[in-house]
Design goal:
Layout lengths: L6 H7 L1 H14 L6 H14 L3 E5 L2 H11 L7 E5 L4 H9 L3 E5 L9 H9 L10 E2 L11 H11 L2 E5 L7 E2 L2 E2 L6 E5 L13 E5 L2 H11 L3 E3 L2 E2 L10 H11 L2 H19 L14 E2 L5 E4 L4 H10 L23 E2 L5 H9 E4 L7 H15 L1
Parallel strand pairs: 2-3, 2-4, 3-14, 4-5, 5-8
Antiparallel strand pairs: 1-9, 6-7, 6-12, 8-9, 10-11, 13-15
Helix pairs in contact: 2-9, 3-9, 4-5, 4-8, 6-7, 10-13, 11-13
Length: 373
């Protein structure tokens, strides 16, 4: 079976260096925060082109800490999308704010036209939203020039959910460099993945960086004294050491993902009724996922691929606004979310990870063509 993703392969590719890094931390006797974490923060910030990196315990916490630093809390609202990992919406709710969800465009990211219409039609006399969270889903950049122009017109902060797009670019500019803050997941399957949970936040704003460092550790400015109400969300040195090793080959891993995507696109082109990923003009995606649109044949295709030894996943099978925990509790943009709801029934993620061999990619292409019929 060709796996859809394979985090163990990433470990095996750098096993000696990762094992040495783990031993270094164990031998150091320093197991919370410390120089290993600080070094990862500096190195990741340099990769992302940001002045500050703030490491936290998960990608969800990265969003929560960033939102809190922006002053988001009870009674506020934050605009994002429903076609995303549930963590994006859960993080908003965990600050006490209300998620307001808009539809996606043909690249499966936030639709600027619906965002603009939503803000223009915002009810008079009600509090304006505090922030916008565009999600760079599947490693595809959202329409950031348009989103930033809308945000600037309405005076809203932009927090980029960059959990699936480490290193992606749009118009030559790294995603994560458009808004005031960017949040990244370091979950094992991500383009830069820990061996466990982890997250990191980047910003150029000194005051926001200071606030986020305080929030992630009980609001401490001095040890054991909470200047503000904070939380416990610290990336441990073991994960930081592993991530420092894996960061050294992130550019090479991205290049390999891009090469796999080119092979898929070439090999799957011309199949009647099968839609391949749409790439935004000026975008350089990093292909966290290679997602095809099989329409109402998705489930049959997925079964056919499984029968031929190819594992796939659906990212994501139920939009957040239709999930039991959120249905009826989130606010939707006028006109509903038809593209989001269609995507849930039609998208399929093919195998995608840097260690995927050309022969395996070719086997996936052949299996898709056979299963499609």
């Amino acid at each position: 079976m060709i796996p859809q993703t394979n985090p163990k392969a990433a470990y095996l590719a750098q096993r000696d260096e990762i094992d040495a890094a783990i031993r270094r931390v164990l031998d150091s006797g320093w197991y919370i925060q410390g120089e290993e974490v600080a070094a990862f923060e500096r190195e990741f910030a340099a990769f992302a082109g940001a002045r500050h990196g703030i490491a936290v315990a998960s990608g969800t916490d990265a969003l929560i800490v960033a939102l809190r630093a922006l002053g988001v809390g009870s009674g506020d609202s934050v605009i994002t999308v429903s076609h995303t990992a549930v963590a994006t919406v859960a993080a908003i709710e965990l600050t006490g704010a209300t998620p307001v969800l808009v539809d996606v465009d043909g690249c499966w990211t936030m639709d600027p036209a619906q965002l603009d219409a939503l803000l223009k039609q915002w009810p008079a006399g009600t509090p304006r939203p505090k922030a916008i969270i565009p999600v760079h889903l599947y490693g595809q950049p959202a329409a950031m020039p348009e989103i930033m122009a809308i945000a600037d017109r309405h005076g809203l902060a932009v927090l980029e959910d960059n959990s699936q797009a480490h290193g992606a670019r749009l118009d030559g500019k790294m995603v994560g460099r458009w808004g005031r803050i960017a949040a990244y997941s370091l979950y094992p399957t991500k383009n830069l993945g820990a061996i466990g949970d982890g997250g990191v936040i980047t910003t150029d704003d000194e005051d926001l960086a200071r606030a986020m460092r305080e929030i992630r550790e009980y609001g401490w400015r001095e040890r054991y004294v909470s200047a503000i109400a904070g939380m416990n969300s610290r990336l441990d040195p073991l994960q930081a050491a592993i991530l420092r090793v894996k960061l050294t080959r992130l550019d090479a891993d991205i290049a390999r993902r891009q090469a796999i995507a080119v092979r898929y696109t070439t090999g799957l082109s011309g199949i009647d009724g099968l839609r391949l990923p749409k790439i935004r003009v000026g975008a350089s995606p990093v292909w966290h996922q290679y997602v095809i649109d099989a329409g109402d044949r998705r489930d049959a295709l997925q079964t056919g691929l499984k029968d031929r030894g190819v594992a796939t996943l659906v990212h994501y099978p139920v939009p957040v606004h239709l999930q039991p925990a959120y249905k009826g509790r989130v606010t939707l943009a006028s006109g509903g979310l038809p593209h989001t709801e269609r995507a849930a029934g039609s998208v399929l993620s093919l195998p995608m990870f840097p260690q995927l061999e050309d022969a395996q990619v070719n086997a996936v292409i052949a299996a898709v063509r056979q299963a499609w019929g």
